[in-house]
Design brief:
Helix content: 25-40%
Structural class: alpha/beta
Distance between the termini: 34 Å
Largest sheet: 6 strands, mixed
Shape: globular
Strand order of the largest sheet: 6-5-4-7-8-9
Radius of gyration: 23 Å
């Protein structure tokens, strides 16, 4: 039966303008009016250079989220807001990696390529891992410099792999773009380097096949056990040369054909797409491309891992492909990043801890006046579909963390429970459903954010504010880019985390570009630490 992937149909009341945290920065700010108070729905996704505007009101005098407007169009508080927030988990980091590349080239990333959750999920969070194969749920928060607003962080974590020798064998089909656009430095040459690195890192009992595509697709190496055959893989990789136009659909379809033909029972079967995702031939829409190989995903459980390359990169297509392909996406700009992805991350992406994982956060009406989830616009799920296991969720591997940040405005004098977060997932082997919950009270989110003792929460906030600034957000309590860079440098010192130092460099570069100093020294490449 074909899977359904339905998005939220407006049940979630996004009551705050641009929401605070999991997205970003955008000037100074204390006590900005919320979306409900300004008559703005505020739930547009990152499509184009600005967030999409709300649809017209369903009834005169009432906003789409149910907020009634007073005379003159001014909104007053919603009388019956929805207090549930539901979304599919996402461990992608490509948006952050591509932003680093773009800033390093002296340009600001297009707003539509900035997904705040991918910025946040690019950094260590320090959550306690579960003892078993499911999730731990951590909920905490703090008060930024924004009047009566608080930040609530929902953190989910899986147990790390015990060791590479204990994972099941992998059966990987690499689908490599060799179109003309891949001839530029940092594209096909980087893909070849990446596969060379991987040839040394995979185990003898792993299997690999190689498909290339330009205007048409070709199998260069059928599914082959690596023991005694590493030279075959290296030779096939070395023989790749740029060709003509880009037919992503042909490459993905041939890749899945090879993955099905070489499917190994008991192994982790996955298609890995390396491309700049600039499709210009054949089918170019993600939904149509994935529809052609839907049976392979359903019957054989083959998932898609996207690796983006190139300064001109089809971010939207790659992200849609991997979302529809039950997988994840990342971005690499140099050999350092390639080694991180193919040596450190790929084993975690190959093995799964959870399939179709979703989260639902229930806010307490007695204590919460307004809230908004920041980011995850492309991952929203209808509240009623949370326990419908036929609706797509996210696939999560070992040692992954997933963070969701909310802007929450408490009722005056409120005390007690603020929110309960529940994660639901299917066991990758048995497909049995499991759930885990966690909650937070008003006292646990009342401390100061900046200068507090939770450095990792502050790093999360900096990354979120930065992302929101890049995509044109306007959040209460947002520091300037200069102030964010200063905070990031201090946090890099206190955490001794080089990825946070790189974040500070990125923010500083963005600040210089905005102020007309785009020729200043760019950031030093390398994707933020994950997990």
């Amino acid at each position: 039966m074909e899977r359904r992937a339905r998005t939220h149909r407006g049940a979630l009341a996004l009551l705050m303008a641009g929401g605070i945290l999991l997205t970003g920065c955008g000037g100074t700010g204390t006590g900005h009016d919320s979306a409900a108070e300004r008559g703005v729905a505020g739930n547009g996704g990152p499509a184009g250079d600005k967030r999409a505007p709300a649809a017209p009101s369903a009834a005169p005098g009432q906003d789409e989220d149910g907020t009634k407007r007073a005379e003159g169009g001014t909104a007053r508080e919603s009388t019956a807001p929805d207090y549930l927030s539901t979304f599919a988990l996402d461990v992608d980091t490509a948006s952050y990696g591509y932003a680093r590349r773009t800033l390093g080239d002296g340009q600001l990333p297009a707003a539509g390529t900035v997904r705040p959750e991918e910025f946040v999920n690019s950094f260590r969070q320090g959550y306690e891992a579960p003892e078993g194969n499911g999730f731990s749920v951590s909920v905490d928060g703090a008060r930024p410099d924004a009047a009566d607003w608080s930040l609530v962080r929902v953190g989910l974590a899986t147990r790390a792999a015990s060791g590479t020798g204990e994972r099941p064998p992998a059966a990987l089909t690499f689908v490599v773009d060799i179109s003309g656009s891949m001839s530029e430095p940092g594209r096909l040459d980087l893909a070849k380097t990446s596969l060379g690195i991987l040839a040394d890192e995979l185990r003898d009992d792993d299997s690999v096949s190689l498909v290339t595509f330009s205007d048409k697709a070709e199998t260069r190496l059928p599914m082959t056990r690596l023991q005694g055959n590493r030279t075959k893989l290296r030779d096939a990789v070395e023989a790749m040369e740029p060709a003509a136009s880009t037919n992503v659909a042909a490459g993905v379809e041939r890749g899945y054909d090879e993955a099905v033909e070489g499917h190994r029972k008991g192994a982790n079967n996955r298609v890995v797409l390396l491309s700049d995702a600039l499709a210009n031939t054949g089918e170019t829409e993600a939904d149509a491309i994935l529809e052609r190989i839907g049976d392979a995903r359903e019957e054989h459980g083959i998932t898609l891992f996207g690796v983006g390359v190139g300064s001109d990169y089809g971010d939207e297509l790659m992200e849609r492909l991997t979302n529809k392909g039950d997988g994840n996406t990342t971005y690499i700009a140099d050999e350092t990043q390639a080694r991180k992805v193919f040596v450190d991350q790929l084993p975690a992406h190959v093995e799964l801890r959870a399939r179709d994982a979703k989260a639902q956060v229930a806010f307490d009406r007695k204590t919460v006046r307004q809230f908004e989830l920041i980011g995850y616009e492309n991952r929203k799920v209808a509240d009623e579909d949370f326990r419908d296991d036929g609706v797509d969720g996210g696939e999560v591997g070992p040692g992954h963390t997933v963070t969701a940040l909310y802007a929450v405005r408490l009722r005056e004098g409120a005390s007690g429970r603020v929110a309960t977060a529940t994660v639901r997932w299917l066991d990758p082997k048995t497909r049995k459903a499991h759930e885990e919950t966690g909650s937070v009270t008003t006292g646990a989110i009342d401390g100061k954010l900046w200068g507090g003792d939770n450095d990792r929460l502050q790093v999360t906030a900096v990354a979120a504010y930065f992302a929101d600034t890049l995509r044109g957000g306007d959040l209460p309590g947002t520091p300037t880019l200069g102030a964010l860079a200063t905070r990031a440098r201090a946090l890099a010192s206190s955490t001794e985390d080089s990825s946070v130092d790189k974040l500070a460099t990125m923010i500083g570069q963005a600040d210089r570009i905005r102020n007309g100093g785009g020729d200043s020294p760019p950031g030093d490449g390398g994707e933020g630490e994950v997990g």
